Amino acid sequence: MTRRLLGLIKALALLACLIPLVHLLTRANGLGDLGANPVQEVLHTLGKTSLNLILITLVITPLRRETGLNWLVGLRRILGLLGFFYVLLHALTYIALDQGFAWKSLFVDVTQRPYITLGFLGLLLMVPLALTSTNSAQRRLGRKWVKLHRLVYLIAALGVLHFSFQVKVDISEPIFYSIVLLLLMGYRINAWLTRRNAMKKAMALNRDAANV
Question: Contact 84/78 with Cβ under 8 angstroms?
Fold first, then answer.
């Protein structure tokens, strides 16, 4: 794949990921309906979009390995940054519109309401990933960069829990997101075990060859 074509795909991915925000803004400007509780609708849309994007970034690795489409890795950064963008908008909406910058109330929520605590922790963990998303940061950190960005697994789990704890009636969506996350993590664990077993077999063969 050429660099120009990959750039075009990235641009299309960016535009596609911004559709939920544009639709939300359109509804908020009177061209649609945000329902009986507009702030909650905005919070729900932004939060769910961010969770979708985070999980999509986790889909890229198994999809690349199974299809051989290595160019998919080029989409991971932009999807991750857009996920952070939506999480940030989600948090700012909660702070400004839902709580009205009532810092004491915010402190109580973060420290005493589990789903708020999980969401806030997920946001904090995403900050270093966003700040180190550049090529220069990846080169500078080396293997530490890989270890740091494995935090995305914890962030995804926190996101699913944050979403699940809010649902009180229809739990079908939280169950769906939980199953998706478990499948993605199961794939990675299986791949890790397969690599480890292959390394053990290779080491054993080398020892046998050395003893001949």
Answer: no
pLDDT value, residue 204: 74
Secondary structure of the chain in HEC code, one letter for each residue? CCHHHHHHHHHHHHHHHHHHHHHHHHHHHHHCCCCCCHHHHHHHHHHHHHHHHHHHHHHHHHHHHHHCCHHHHHHHHHHHHHHHHHHHHHHHHHHHHHCCCCHHHHHHHHHHCHHHHHHHHHHHHHHHHHHCCCHHHHHHHCHHHHHHHCHHHHHHHHHHHHHHHHCCCCCHHHHHHHHHHHHHHHHHHHHHHHHHHHHHHHHHHHHHHHHC
Tokens at residue 204, please?
Answer: 């054993």
Q: Specify whether the CB–CB gap between 47 and 163 falls below 8 A.
A: yes
| Cβ-based neighbour number of residue 149 at 10 Å | 18
Residue 136: exposure state from Cβ atoms within 10 A (0-12, 13-18, ≥19): exposed
Whole-number Å distance between alpha carbons of 181 and 176: 9
Alpha-carbon separation of residue 111 from 61, 95, 114, 138, 146 (angstroms): 35, 15, 8, 34, 31
Measured in whole angstroms, the distance separating CA 114 from the mean position of its chain's CA atoms is: 20
Each residue's pLDDT tens digit, 103-146: 999 999 999 999 999 999 999 999 999 999 999 999 999 999 99
For residue 197 the two structure tokens come to 């077993």
Residue 89 has pLDDT above 60, yes or no: yes
